[in-house]
Amino acid sequence: MAAETDTGAIEDFGQVSRTVGTVFRYLLLAATMFGIVMLAVLLLYVANDAIRPLTADPGWYLAFFLALVAPTGIAGWAVRRRDPAALTFGTFLVGMLVVSLMFSGGVALLVIDVVPPLVALAFAIGLAVPIGATVGLTRYAHRISFTLRLAATTAVFYLSLFGLPGPIGDAVGAPPIVPSLVALVQSVPVIPVDWMMVAAVVGGGSAAAIGTYVASVGDGSAGLYAAGVALAASAAAGAAGPLVGVDSVPAVVITAVALVPTTAYAWRGGFTEEGSPLGLVFAATVVVGALVGAAAVDVLGFAGPQSWVDWGFLTSAHSGTAENAGLYPAIGGSILLMTTVAALSFPVGVGAAVYLEEYAGDNALTRFVDVNISNLAGVPSVVYGLLGLGVFVTYLGRSAGTVLVGGATLALLILPIVIISAREAIRSVPSDMRQASYGMGATRWQTVKNVVLPEAFPGILTGTILALGRAIGETAPLIMIGAPNVVFNLPTALGSKVSAMPLQVYAWSSLFASEDFYTKAVPAGVVVLLAVLLAMNSVAIVLRNKFERTQ
Amino acid sequence: MTREPERNSRFSRREFLAATGGLGVAGLAGCTQDNPSDGATADPTETGSDGSDSDGSGGDGGSGELSGEISIAGSSTVFPLASAMAERFEERHSGVSTSLQSTGSGGGFANYFCTGQTDFNNASRPIQPEEEEQCAGNDVEPVELKVATDALTVIVNNDNEFLGEGLTVEQLREIWSAESQPETWADVDAEWPDEPFELYGPSDASGTYDYFIESVLGEEGPGHRQDYSPTEQDRTIIQGVSGSEFAMGYLGFAYYSQNQDTVQAVPIKDGEGDYVEPSLDTALSGDYTPLSRPLFTYPKVSALEEEHIAEFARFWIENSTSREIVADEVGYVPLSEDERDEMLGKIDSAVGDSD
């Protein structure tokens, strides 16, 4: 362009060279890749230490190559040529099976070692009954004033969960008059066996979710049938589990949390109108290939890699010898901490985001809050640890290092991130939709409830899961609030001492500093932590993709 | 509009509900169990009689019925020992949930034990008067239990004969201090050969390193010289020293005791005393100074009232004479039988006082 000026002088432009541009481009590429490559090298190193792929027989690799890798490649290529969307669906299906199996492991851990089935059932009933009553009240008696409904709802919940006079009565020393529904259920002399109670609670929850999902795709009655089939499948798994060598309770949980949802997703993707059945072929190839490969190496006697991440590592507690050390209490601790963090930070964070986006006016106070939330997101985690120690332990006098204190501290830590990402999600709801809602005469509350939140929900969920992913890797705040370095059991109450995966890895690398722990337990712990983190992030990414597509 | 399909399917749905309901009832009737929490009222009396039984016999019968939480904090030196004991206790009593935290002796007393948060505080030194005051202010009454002895051993090559009787603490200080940093043996004592030192020791991440500085070089002193071969592996120290006539190193006693043929231990003379050879006996008797120190744990009296905590304290002390756990696994000098009985007596009287 410079050459086209009147004078034709191109002195200012200098020598035109393609080299500069090329060099600049590859420098940028190097900058992009620098961090990723460094991290990848470290992770490969750690994974190699933890899984030790070179210790496997060549036959083991050959068997899995023939049974799993080659057929997957061929099937993937063939499916992609016909229908690329089917390959995506098939890959998602396999991913969903893997991730949901991991989550079912977490749920199984909770029902086996943390919450006794009877307690879970009692609370499920104690919550289901008042929720049912509330729904009925709202649907059939909406002429009753809001205040009256609120009072009635609160009373039903209080009665069901605490009885009369409940905690208020305890405070003034009144004797219990009416036992709560929760206590009533727990005092029944003859109860169903454990797996039936687990089937009712976990299977029931899963069935309700599946029913809603199917109803949203098909119609109401299909949803009802799907829910019934899902519940029946969970219960059947409990009865059939022992026949194939799996305990009833884990069988129920795996079916309810992993198999049933995966099947529902497969049904939707494979057999509904816009479905792509070829994806099922791909997914089946992978699953069958993995099973055949496993059976083949078992029969032929090929030894797999002598990985430190094995069943024993996942299910045993810490030990003084690295070979016997396990991560079980830390895995359970992390799950409980994350549950607490989610329960605390989600409502508060979303509430704050809705207020700031939908209600707050543009004034000095809002701007002040705005700036500070952004700043808080960058405050070092050790400072939050100090805050947790100061507020919860020293000031409020809770005992140090418990699930509640740890969860509350981590919830404070990720609260700004949750608020910021929830605000982003709410902001991305088109204002046309709000205006349309107002135009139909809806109030602001109705607009938020019926338009904004449902539209923004996947985005909010994505942001929260990513924030939880940060919380699950935090070590410093837990050290600050006095979480123990070693525990041997899962915490069974909010007031129990809790360990977490990063904390256990830290303890192994600092307190048990020996070659054995460095090369066995620490890498194995890191691999498990990363696997859990990646599973959580994959859920977030899938939700985000789905969200973007429907936009 | 939405009502229509519901009405059509109502009959079959009712049928379906009836069928599942019937199945459910049949299933419930077939698969029931007695409510364990209902019968729990009978249990405490059983456990109680069992507990008093084991009190008399010394608590050998691991009934597995104990339950509750035990929280332990304190010294990082005692931490591996406490963790080894807790691991074994867990194997017998899976209902007891033990949590261990390494906070350092002082940090444990000030932040956790004396504020009433923890049941045990480990310490690599006796409790200090200020800490006792703080504890008393919060109605926490500590019981001092010695659990092991930590002994450092200075080792040289088997062919080394020029050291003769041994080393004085002053010589040891001169060799390892960052200030003097002698290059050859002759720099320290003219009678020794004019050969360069080959020094092996634990790295600065090790508690042994800290303890060596504390006991030999002095906390306020010039510090540890850095031109030696630091390692986390005690085996490397043994190998290094056994490889050269003019090498020297130091490590925990337990590692030396497993390699008594490979290297020789140097007797140490503290001040005006005699040259004392490191051994289980001299460490126990307190003659081997300044390189031996007792390790403690402090349970609080109010916690010992709880049966599972008293049982754990007894378990720990009973096993603290075990060479397998204390010396071989963790690397400290075990208690003598007399000391064990004395500590058990302290527990019993603490439990008795509180009753």
TrEMBL record, chain B:
Record keyword Transcription regulation present: no
Top-level taxon of the source organism: Archaea
Transmembrane segments: none
Family matches, as CDD domains: PBP2_phosphate_like_2 (cd13654)
PROSITE patterns per record: PROKAR_LIPOPROTEIN, TAT
Keyword entries, A-Z: Signal, Transport
Domain PBP: 64-317
Residue numbers spanned by region Disordered: 26-69
InterPro entries found in the cross-reference section: PBP_domain, Phos-bd, Phosphate_ABC_transporter, TAT_signal
Biased amino acid composition, Gly residues: 56-65
Pfam families per the UniProt record, alphabetical: PBP_like_2 (PF12849)
SUPFAM superfamilies named in the record: Periplasmic binding protein-like II
Annotated signal peptide: none
Name of this protein: PstS family phosphate ABC transporter substrate-binding protein
Organism in which the protein naturally occurs: Halobellus rarus
